[in-house]
């Protein structure tokens, strides 16, 4: 054990049955418990572990695990409620890349994932230590440990040596391993949520006898909502509240509840939580607010110590409308209507609005969780629940924060291929966020980071609750359009114009119709109809004529959706025609989506019943309908594209890059901007192409460098350098287009004179040829991880703000999206007859930048500006990199918040 290991904080995680365990380094004081772990094993299990049934092995194993810290050795234990139940350890034996691993699990606790969880954490620790391979010896009859290694998701090879098997486990982190970890985590997570969302018994703490308290409202909702399990109140001053039996304490209840809802004052919450944990309660919902730091920590400690899942505090509560449960543990005004939408929010007010809106629309709710301050249960947990509950086909989220965005992204990418995941992009205006003064940090906003997360994960991000509900109504009732082509039909020209504007603003396309379709439409519409797009059917159109028109448009292959903008007219009223019925009398769900805009409608969105039992969305504003259709088209495009992969890269020396980083930070404990030489060395580790350059700290050296490096017609560029300089052009610290010794000397003298006392030298580069100046960079977000940015470069990059961003690691799709998203993209593909730039080379620069950021968590930001792109090559002309002392974090390691 090293001192670093001993100082690592404990981590809590879930076993396959949903039990919470603590994973932590072994400490010297654990000796007796570890010895007991082995002593309590059966002789057979001792033989399988040590190849002999000697009891002396227990003492030796405990001695080894608790010995003084030593390089190359790590030991992690699993404990629950203070009892050690498993141990995993590795020892490099003085080597560097390979380590011997061993695992032990307490008798009676096999097949619950203890060993697998320990090994996962040991794998993560080994990677951070530079270990690339585990080896393990096992008896060939020890099927359990052999299966453990095989099922990890890592590449395992076996070599049989008589009665023993030598296993070699490669620790490379690839998608197969992450997928296996996710599958185990999902099963454990869902199991842990069963007591929360499908409890057999519930108790409410804080339900008063007088009306007006939150606790009483919660108890009333549970009782009146038809909860199917046992229901209790906890109140020392009452024996019955609202017809529900009441008891003085949790310990006095006739049975231990699975779930306890706490609505007690903040100072009492930790005590109640501890009492619940000791009684064996499995889940808490804490609606109480205003817990101070000490109370909050005590609440979370009680939950972790006793293995309770926690929703809240400061929340509205939870609901599960499944008829087998009928759980409504909220204090909303009414009960949510049963349905198929899963809802998770942090804001109680947003939760009430969504519950009301979904119930009014008839979509209804499967399960609802108001996460509040989100100490434990998160949006990631709820996504995994909805993925497996068999009832949810639409997920709605309102998240103000992300505990583990990269784990959330992987979960969301998987879930959103099975059901739409919609969110409100809350907190979009973090305008003051600016890190150190580089181009990358200035360009990277929290809005851009969140949008990158949503885009890459396939999440539909809306800007308001109204837009969220409008989009959910379309997703719930209509198929996704195959593209963005929309046909508009109206009985009033003005309404058609408004709808056309809304569609164009939303990014939808109104294609012109073929002559054949025009003839067909004119044949069924009244005289005077204008058959462009929009189709103005005029106020004289009848119900039958409108139906025929829509039928022909739905059969036309040149469009992807039909949008009707209808207004009530005296003509239709006089003839008894119901133009809305022209649409709803047919099938409600067809091959292409169809929606209505009714400007007189008194609600923002409603669902109209169709003849076949389906429904059709109707909107009061054309903008709402257009935005919903645009969201549906983007989702369809995302689903149609195969999942991206992170390309393998050649010529990458991660080991040397980490050595460079560690060496720099050892000399600069507070971090800082790398000097040009170290920066160039780091780029070389990732084979990122750089323009040749030479360092000069005297005038004569600058002249020699210019003679050696002269670029186009012998011309060079000279750039001053001093520690901390980022924007050279802003300081006028650059001389361009220098030719000949005199100009080089004059430039050096100018820089030396103006920056006396600052400048430590200059670097000289050949003058680059003509091309497109681009910008590429990365910034490490404290929450989201590395964010890669790309766009138009040069001195005006921040002013023009023509940037796109994606979270690392970049897949092949992400790189394509980065290159095509900025407004300058046409320049890269040959606009103005210049021919396309080296797109493959550009992709490689972005992929290698992403890899560097993934490999080096200490890389706070990197700024490549300009990156010169020409048809023949892509070259980084100037690069800046800043390092900070940061401990690597494994975002995919299974652990609770």
TrEMBL record:
<keyword id="KW-0436">Ligase</keyword>
<dbReference type="InterPro" id="IPR036291">
    <property type="entry name" value="NAD(P)-bd_dom_sf"/>
</dbReference>
<dbReference type="GO" id="GO:0016874">
    <property type="term" value="F:ligase activity"/>
</dbReference>
<dbReference type="Pfam" id="PF13380">
    <property type="entry name" value="CoA_binding_2"/>
</dbReference>
<dbReference type="InterPro" id="IPR043938">
    <property type="entry name" value="Ligase_CoA_dom"/>
</dbReference>
<dbReference type="InterPro" id="IPR000182">
    <property type="entry name" value="GNAT_dom"/>
</dbReference>
<dbReference type="Pfam" id="PF19045">
    <property type="entry name" value="Ligase_CoA_2"/>
</dbReference>
<dbReference type="Pfam" id="PF00583">
    <property type="entry name" value="Acetyltransf_1"/>
</dbReference>
<protein>
    <submittedName>
        <fullName>Bifunctional GNAT family N-acetyltransferase/acetate--CoA ligase family protein</fullName>
    </submittedName>
</protein>
<dbReference type="InterPro" id="IPR003781">
    <property type="entry name" value="CoA-bd"/>
</dbReference>
<dbReference type="Pfam" id="PF13549">
    <property type="entry name" value="ATP-grasp_5"/>
</dbReference>
<feature type="domain" description="N-acetyltransferase">
    <location>
        <begin position="21"/>
        <end position="172"/>
    </location>
</feature>
<dbReference type="InterPro" id="IPR013815">
    <property type="entry name" value="ATP_grasp_subdomain_1"/>
</dbReference>
<dbReference type="InterPro" id="IPR016102">
    <property type="entry name" value="Succinyl-CoA_synth-like"/>
</dbReference>
<dbReference type="Pfam" id="PF13607">
    <property type="entry name" value="Succ_CoA_lig"/>
</dbReference>
<dbReference type="InterPro" id="IPR032875">
    <property type="entry name" value="Succ_CoA_lig_flav_dom"/>
</dbReference>
<dbReference type="InterPro" id="IPR016181">
    <property type="entry name" value="Acyl_CoA_acyltransferase"/>
</dbReference>
């Amino acid at each position: 054990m090293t001192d670093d290991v001993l100082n690592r904080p404990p981590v809590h995680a879930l076993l396959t049955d949903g039990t919470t365990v603590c994973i932590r380094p072994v400490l010297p004081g654990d000796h007796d418990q570890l010895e007991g772990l082995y002593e309590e094993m059966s002789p057979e299990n001792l033989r399988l572990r040590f190849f002999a049934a000697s009891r002396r092995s227990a003492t030796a194993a405990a001695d080894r695990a608790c010995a003084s810290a030593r390089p190359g050795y790590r030991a992690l234990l699993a404990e629950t409620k203070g009892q050690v139940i498993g141990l995993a350890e590795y020892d490099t034996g003085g080597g560097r890349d390979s380590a011997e691993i061993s695992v032990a699990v307490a008798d009676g606790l096999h097949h619950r994932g203890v060993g697998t969880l320990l090994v996962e954490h040991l794998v993560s620790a080994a990677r951070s230590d530079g270990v690339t391979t585990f080896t393990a010896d096992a008896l060939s009859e020890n099927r359990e440990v052999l299966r453990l290694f095989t099922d990890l998701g890592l590449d395992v090879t076996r070599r049989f040596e008589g009665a023993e098997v030598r296993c070699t486990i490669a620790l490379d982190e690839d998608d197969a391993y992450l997928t296996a970890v996710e599958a185990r985590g999902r099963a454990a997570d869902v199991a842990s949520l069963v007591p929360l969302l499908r409890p057999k018994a519930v108790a409410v703490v804080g339900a008063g006898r007088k009306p007006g308290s939150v606790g009483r409202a919660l108890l009333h909702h549970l009782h009146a909502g038809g909860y199917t399990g046992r229901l209790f109140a906890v109140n020392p001053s009452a024996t019955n509240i609202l017809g529900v039996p009441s008891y003085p304490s949790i310990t006095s209840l006739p049975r231990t509840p699975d779930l306890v809802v706490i609505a007690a004052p903040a100072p009492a919450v930790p005590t109640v939580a501890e009492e619940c944990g000791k009684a064996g309660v499995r889940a808490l919902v804490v609606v109480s607010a205003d817990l101070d730091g000490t109370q909050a920590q005590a609440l979370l400690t009680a939950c972790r110590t006793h293995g309770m899942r926690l929703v809240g505090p400061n929340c509205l509560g939870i609901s599960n409308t499944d008829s087998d449960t009928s759980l409504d543990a909220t204090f909303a005004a009414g009960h949510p209507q049963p349905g198929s939408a899963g809802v998770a929010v942090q804001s109680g007010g947003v939760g009430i609005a969504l519950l009301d809106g979904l119930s009014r629309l008839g979509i209804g709710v499967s399960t609802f969780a108001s996460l509040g301050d989100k100490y434990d249960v998160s949006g990631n947990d709820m996504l995994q629940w909805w993925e497996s509950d068999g009832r949810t086909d639409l997920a709605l989220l309102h998240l103000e924060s992300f505990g583990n965005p990269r784990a959330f992204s992987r979960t969301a990418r998987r879930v959103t291929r099975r059901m739409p995941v919609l969110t409100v992009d809350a907190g979009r205006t973090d305008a003051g966020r600016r890190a150190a003064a580089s181009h990358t940090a200035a360009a990277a906003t929290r809005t851009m980071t969140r949008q990158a997360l949503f885009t890459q994960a396939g999440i539909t991000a809306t800007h308001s609750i109204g837009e969220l509900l409008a989009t959910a109504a379309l997703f719930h009732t209509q198929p996704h359009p195959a593209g963005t082509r929309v046909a508009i039909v109206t009985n009033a020209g003005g309404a058609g114009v408004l709808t056309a504007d809304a569609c164009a603003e939303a990014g939808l396309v109104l294609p012109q119709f073929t002559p054949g379709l025009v003839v067909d439409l004119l044949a069924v519409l009244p005289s005077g109809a204008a058959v462009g797009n929009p189709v103005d059917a005029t106020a004289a159109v009848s119900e039958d004529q409108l139906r025929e028109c829509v039928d022909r448009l739905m059969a036309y292959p040149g469009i992807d959706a039909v949008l009707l903008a209808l207004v009530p007219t005296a003509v239709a009223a006089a003839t008894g025609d119901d133009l809305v019925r022209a649409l709803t009398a047919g099938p409600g769900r067809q091959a292409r989506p169809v929606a209505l805009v009714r400007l007189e409608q008194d609600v923002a969105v409603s669902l109209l019943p169709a003849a076949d039992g389906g429904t059709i969305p109707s909107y009061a504003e054309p903008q709402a309908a257009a935005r919903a259709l645009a969201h549906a088209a983007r989702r369809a495009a995302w689903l149609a594209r195969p999942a991206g992969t992170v390309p393998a890269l050649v010529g990458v020396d991660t080991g040397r890059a980490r050595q460079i980083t560690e060496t720099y930070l050892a000399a600069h404990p507070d971090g800082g901007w790398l000097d040009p030489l170290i920066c160039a060395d780091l780029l070389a580790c990732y084979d990122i192409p750089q323009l040749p350059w030479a360092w000069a700290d005297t005038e004569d050296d600058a002249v020699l460098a210019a003679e050696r490096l002269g670029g186009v017609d012998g011309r060079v560029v000279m750039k001053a350098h001093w520690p901390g300089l980022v924007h050279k052009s802003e300081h006028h610290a650059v001389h361009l287009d220098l030719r000949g010794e005199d100009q080089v000397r004059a430039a050096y003298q100018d820089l030396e004179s103006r920056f006396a006392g600052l400048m430590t030298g200059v670097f000289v580069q050949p003058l680059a040829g003509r091309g497109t100046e681009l910008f590429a960079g990365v910034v490490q977000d404290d929450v989201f991880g590395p964010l890669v940015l790309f766009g138009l470069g040069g001195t005006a990059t921040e002013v023009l703000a023509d940037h796109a961003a994606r979270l690392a690691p970049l897949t092949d799709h992400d790189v394509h999206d980065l290159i095509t998203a900025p407004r300058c993209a046409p320049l890269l593909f040959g606009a103005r007859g210049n021919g396309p730039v080296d797109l493959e080379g550009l992709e490689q620069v972005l992929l290698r930048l992403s890899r560097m950021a993934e490999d080096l968590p200490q890389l706070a930001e990197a700024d490549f500006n300009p990156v010169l792109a020409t048809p023949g090559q892509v070259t980084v002309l100037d690069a800046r990199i800043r390092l900070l002392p940061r401990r690597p974090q494994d975002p995919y390691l299974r652990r609770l918040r």
